[in-house]
Amino acid sequence: SRFFEHRIFTFFGDISYSLYLIHFPLLLTLGSLISNRFMFSPVYIFLSAFLSAVLLSYLMCIFIERPFQKFALRLIKKYKVFNTLIL
After folding, report:
1. What is the mean predicted confidence (pLDDT) over 10-33?
2. Residues with Cβ < 8 Å from 35, sequence gap 6 or more?
3. CB atoms closer than 10 angstroms to residue 15
4. Higher pLDDT, 3 or 58
5. Residue 57 burial (CB < 10 Å; 0-12/13-18/19+)?
6. Is the predicted pLDDT of residue 35 greater than 90, yes or no?
7. Burial of 53 (0-12, 13-18, 19+ CB in 10 A)
8. Rounded mean pLDDT of the chain?
9. Residue 50 and residue 43: Cα distance in Å, rounded?
10. Cβ contacts of residue 58 below 8 Å, gap of 6+?
């Protein structure tokens, strides 16, 4: 279990949902922009999509997910009815 507590695994665990949301549209967009323009286009597509997806996922996690998580916690504290819901 200490192996999976490494910073790289926790980083990807933190951004995993954002990465899941952004990777496919980004892959399609970059694939259509880069394909057949370079000799090693699949490699360029993969590398650029992976790096862009990680960067965008990190930004989405910082500026979208975390503020909404804090907002949800404030709602739960303010309105006790949200605390009793079973989801």
Report:
1. 93
2. 41, 45
3. 22
4. 58
5. buried
6. no
7. buried
8. 88
9. 11
10. 15, 18
In sequence order, what DSSP letters do the residues of 2-31 get, joined into one string? -GGGSHHHHHHHHSHHHHHHHHHHHHHHHH
pTM of the full structure? 0.79
pLDDT band at 10 (very low <50, low <70, confident <90, very high): very high
Residue at token pair 């694939």: 31
Does pLDDT of 79 surpass 90? no
Residue type, 63: F
Spell out the residues 6+ positions from residue 1 whose beta carbon is closer than 8 angstroms to its own.
none
CB 34 within 8 A of CB 48: yes
Retrieve residue 9's tokens.
């695994």
Q: What's the CA gap between 87 and 82, in Å, rounded?
A: 10
Please give the Cα distance from 42 to 9 (Å, whole number).
26
- Taking residues 64-77, report their average pLDDT: 91
